[in-house]
Specification:
The chain is mostly helical and 68 residues long. It has one domain. 69% of the residues lie in helices and 0% in strands.
């Protein structure tokens, strides 16, 4: 079941989530999805990014900022 495997590890997700949270904290008016998409592209080296991964990163970053 290759389709059910995550595209990145949990550690990678945590790193990307923290990077997105930091980027959004520094520029709160920026588009979160665009920031997340660029981070994933840079991190994976791929031209396209999984939209489910983007949504999960945005959700995790918003949750982190809500806790602060």
């Amino acid at each position: 079941m290759k389709g059910s495997r995550p595209s990145i590890s949990l550690l990678d997700f945590d790193i990307l989530s923290r990077a997105l949270t930091s980027a959004v904290r520094d520029s709160p008016d920026s588009n979160w999805k665009v920031q997340a998409r660029e981070l994933v592209r840079l991190y994976t080296g791929k031209k396209s990014a999984d939209e489910n991964l983007i949504a999960a990163l945005v959700h995790a970053s918003r949750a982190q900022l809500d806790l602060e």
